[in-house]
Design brief:
The chain is of the alpha+beta class and about 150 residues long. About 15% of the residues lie in helices and about 40% in strands. It is globular.
Amino acid sequence: MTRTTHRRSRRLATAAAALTIGLGAGLTGCAKDAEPAPPASSTASEPPSDTTSSSTPSDTATPQSQTIDVSVSGDTVVPSGERVDAKVGEEIVLHVTADAPGEIHVHSTPEQEFTYEAGTTDLPLTIDQPGLVDVESHTHDLVIVQLEVR
């Protein structure tokens, strides 16, 4: 095998492996998903100001945390598919206000599932690996937010 042919074979093998991994990652979504997540808007790098807030740590020893307000009323869930920046290991609190009980599934590694009751519930979670993580309502079969974890 010539050096050029060897390089080409190695590139093809690398591309095939990347495609296989990418397809596998795309197939690990929730089985109850009816539709793919909505496309991100042109301002996807900035979290919506009305749905998220961050607290500033008082010193460098205190880890940063972020709260995402989630409102569930009837068949309406807000936010609905927005991207939110997050950091590996950062505590994220889903502050859920709902008119009925429900369930939230976080497609992280490991996956996380939460239930909430009617009223207000705080659901703390932490993502340990970087990537795009869907947080979805199993009750409504839709993506609430996509955490862009870095």
